Amino acid sequence: MTRRQLRAIGLRIGGQEPAAQVVCRGGLRFGYLYRRSLALPVRPMTPARWAAHQRMMLARRTCPLCLVVGEHCYPKSLGCCLECADGLALAELEQLLTLARTTTAA
User: Fold this and answer.
1) 7 near 38, Cβ under 8 Å?
2) pTM of the predicted model as reported, rounded to 2 decimal places
């Protein structure tokens, strides 16, 4: 069984080595298979883990520039909310336009 299949029935691999490996697409993709008989039950979430998870998700939803908490996590590629990202792009464009105007005027 794959890790996802084990997780779907409430089990985890529990440190066991893969029993088999499935290879497809000419060796470009592969997946490990594990024995169900050696799998262990999933550890339950403790109140402390739930609290840590909630703090982590709050940090991922908070824009570091304007400190607004959104409903969804902000993209890592931007590093901030979309409004701040648009503002940064516009400010950079304005700086480039100002620089271009001063060099053509001289």
Assistant:
1) no
2) 0.56
